[in-house]
Amino acid sequence: MEHIRLPKVENVRLLDRVSPRRSTVGTLYLTATHTIFVENEDGSRNETWVLHSLVSSMEKRGATAAGYPLLIRCKNFQVLHFVIPRERDCHNVHVSLQRLSQPACYEELPCFFDHPNVDKEERQQEWEFLDVKADYSRMGIPNSLWKLSPVNRQYEVSDSYPADLFVPEAATLPVIAGSSKFRSRGRFPALSYYSKDNHVSRLHPYFLCLLSFQWQLINS
Q1: Is the CB of residue 147 less than 8 Å from the CB of residue 166?
Q2: Looking at the DSSP assignment, which residues form a beta bridge with residue 57?
Q3: d(Cα 7, Cα 176) in Å, to the nearest integer?
Q4: Gap between the Cα atoms of 2 and 186, Å rounded
Q5: Which residues on neighbouring strands pair with residue 55, listed in sequence order?
Q6: CA 73 to CA 79: how far, in whole Å?
Q7: Does the first or last residue of the chain, that is N or C, have fewer Cβ atoms within 10 Å of its Cβ?
Q8: Burial of 51 (C-beta count, 10 Å sphere; 0-12/13-18/19+)
């Protein structure tokens, strides 16, 4: 990947958090998705993997007799204290990790560029593994009470909702758009379960009691 200035650094020390005098020498690798430290002492090959998206902050500290420290704090409270022999290598690793842990756009996320070695038709079949419409059809949807809405077809209202959503039959697009402004990320009440035996339904988010009640009034 073009953001990796230095993919491999040897003779890197990983300091122990409990006893800083203890350290492990190994090789530091930078990939498009992970930072990997491989120990090479006593014939062992213990590996420490850190996902770039888990990196919270990094700190370059002053030079020591052993080298140039680089402290990496992760969002899962993991802390890695590396000591890199050369200042230029430490700078290149620091700059690379800053760029890799803070993608500038969605297209730089691994799910968009890390494609498996399969053909296009096979990848398309994986996207169709779960058929949402068929699942709702099993529950008897759509019917006279619930309909398929195109409001989120391009993920314009809520990026955390699927494209195919079922809403009350009487709910108009302005009502749905207005309901999405009450919650974060544009979420609005959408059908998640329906029993065709007794017409019991469950909406998501279920904690939108007020909006759910209003929507029930629409259907009454």
Answers
A1: yes
A2: 73
A3: 48
A4: 35
A5: 74
A6: 5
A7: C
A8: middle
Asked whether the bond before 205 is cis by omega within 30 degrees of 0, the reply is: yes
Distance of alpha carbon 43 from alpha carbon 49, whole angstroms: 19
User: CA-to-CA distance for 172 and 14, rounded, in angstroms?
Assistant: 59
- For residues 123-142, one letter each, b for 16 or more C-beta atoms within 10 angstroms of the residue's C-beta and e for the rest, the string is eeeeeeeeeeeeebeeeebe
Closest to 52 in 3D by CA, of 78, 31, 69, 80: 31
The torsion angles phi and psi of 165, rounded to 5 degrees, stand at: -130, 145
Is residue 195 a contact partner of residue 217, using CB atoms and an 8 Å limit?
no
Please name the residue that has the structure tokens 């999405």.
180
What residues contact 135, with CB distance under 8 A and at least 6 apart?
none
Residue tagged 């030079």 (tokens): 63
Rounded Cα gap, residues 12 and 24, in angstroms: 8
pLDDT tens digit sequence for 62-97:
888 889 999 999 999 999 999 999 999 999 999 999
Distance from C-alpha of 82 to C-alpha of 28, rounded to nearest angstrom: 9
Question: Among 180, 216, 179, which residue's Cα sits nearest to residue 200?
Answer: 216
Per-residue pLDDT tens over the stretch 104-145:
887 788 777 766 677 777 777 776 777 888 889 999 999 998
| Reported pTM | 0.56
**CA distance linking residue 218 with residue 220, whole number of Å:** 6
Pairwise CA distance, residues 167 & 152, whole Å:
11
